[in-house]
Each structure stands twice: as structure tokens, then as C-alpha cells.
Amino acid sequence: MTYDTLAVTIGKGLCRISFDRPEAGNAINDQMIRELTQVLNICVCDAGSDGKPVSIVVLEGNAEIFCAGGDFQAVSDSGAAGDPEPLYEIWRLLSEGPFITISVVKGRVNAGGVGFVAACDIVIAEQRATFGLSELLFGLFPACVLPFLVRRIGHQKAHYMTLMTKPVSAHDAAASGLVDVVAENADAALRQHLTRLQHLNRQAIASYKCYMASCSGNPERDKVAALTANRTFFSDPSVVAGIQRYVSELKFPWEA
């Protein structure tokens, strides 16, 4: 697939999306939003060239920068930032879509770039990566980022990060919950994750993420949904067959 702002490969159940605007710090513009929307919709509705449904989506930048946020040059040229809803929908799809989403961060992340990170299921960062919200310096605030960031790190930590406007280190981001894994080599850490994640069933991933999106963490409030989900998957013949096979042959569902 050929895009102007992205480098994309899809195959063997994996979609890798690299932001590819190095001259602009991988900043988000309208073209990038359109192309990301198209790629993610392919992942939702379609399969790769090998016919295997996409179950993992990986977002990457380059060694120096993951994503600098919104394209200030485009805003300066047009005098407007455009409609924020398409980008918000991309983050919502990363958060709730029927696939595992992983951000691999090697360098700097700022502003809207934090939105991509906060929306993903798993975040792997190299030790030199940094994460910042600079919006208040310019008289605005990260309104669309915050719903995803608050869910990931909590209200007060997101509040402090927004107010301070300064970048935080990968280790500090991990301490807050924004980053899951800090690695010396993010590519090696990604390979280790994919070795395990690639065995997960897309239908199970989709059901799980749908359930988690509505899970409040309140046992009483969540009881009906929890019991319904449990009864549903234990009444699925393929689930029961997989359990029976493991008991009798000690083989996982994906093993020949």
C-alpha cells in the first residue's frame, strides 16, 4: 500500500503503520487523518493479502520522533485547525477496535501524539523517549486527548501533565501508567510481545475490548455484563472444544 504520510504493511494478521512525515516531525495533518482512517477501516473490515484477519495494529514513528502533534504550519497557513472529530474517532477505534493496538515509541511524543499513545492497548517505549502536552503554552488544552489519557493514567496525573506542559521521561511515563514497557531496544521488545499476542483469536479480542470499554470497575454495577459475558463464551462450542483438546492433548488451540 502506498500513502503520502504513512508507511503501511499488512500480513499474517499484523498491520504496521509508521508515521512518515519526517520533515514535519510526523505532525498530524488532514491527509494523515484520512489515510489513518482508511487503513484502520481496512483492518476492521478486511484481511491482509494472505486472507488472515488483522488482530494486531502497531503504530511507530522514527528514531527521533514518534509524533509532534498537530501540524502548526498547516494551522498557520489556513488560520484554522479543522474538524477534530475524525482524529478523535481514530483514537476511539484504536482504543475500542477489534484488534490489539501497540504504540512503539523511540523518540519524542507531543500533544496529539500523546493521543495515539494513550488510545493504544500496549505502549512500548525506549529509555530516551519523552512524552509532553504543550497545548496550554499556546492558550488551548488537549481536550480530545484527555478522555483517553485520563482513562489510562487517572485524572490528577493527566491534570498535572497538562498544567506543567513539560516533557516527561519514559520511566516517569511508565510510573504514571502511560507506558507499559520501557526497553533498551523497542524493536526487540515488540518482537517478544508479538510472539505471544499473535496467538490470540480476533473474535476473542473484539469481545474482550468491547467488554472492557464498558467495564466500570464497580463489581455491583458490572455484575450483569460480567455474568452475561462469562455465560456467552462458555456456551461457545469452539471455546469448549479448545478446552477439551488441551485437557486431552495438552495443546493450545493454535497448535497443530
TrEMBL record:
Pfam families: ECH_1. SUPFAM superfamilies: ClpP/crotonase (SSF52096). GO terms for molecular function: catalytic activity. Coiled coil: none annotated. It comes from the Bacteria. Belongs to the enoyl-CoA hydratase/isomerase family. This is Enoyl-CoA hydratase/isomerase. It comes from Roseibium limicola.
